[in-house]
Amino acid sequence: MNAFAALADDTRREIVKLVAKNGELTSTEISLNFKMSPPAISQHLKVLKESKVLQMKKQSQKRIYSLNRSGIDEMEDWLLEIINLSNKRLDRLEKYVLKLKKEKSDGRK
């Protein structure tokens, strides 16, 4: 599953926000913030880890989650590409509108 598909779920987006806000959280700390079973949260964490949105390290018996910078950067790069394409389209539209305005004002003189 890719990162965007993983983040289509409300609970997973909330988990990512929670981890981003706190830096690192154990799976137990994460599950305490939700009204669902720890195994259900574990499934969400598994999806987020497999999609490279979160990373996990083991410390004794604890599983500690943090943002996976490479996964986040990949999404950011894609979003910036989409924004740039949209901005270029809007720039072309603006030039066209300015051209029409100029032609209209030149025609009145």
Automatic annotation (TrEMBL):
Gene3D superfamilies on file: Winged helix-like DNA-binding domain superfamily/Winged helix DNA-binding domain
GO molecular function terms attached to this record: DNA-binding transcription factor activity
Pfam families according to UniProt: HTH_5
Domain HTH arsR-type stretches: 1-87
InterPro entries cross-referenced by the UniProt entry: ArsR-like_HTH, HTH_ArsR_DNA-bd_dom, WH-like_DNA-bd_sf, WH_DNA-bd_sf
Name of the protein this chain belongs to: Transcriptional regulator
Organism: Leptospira tipperaryensis
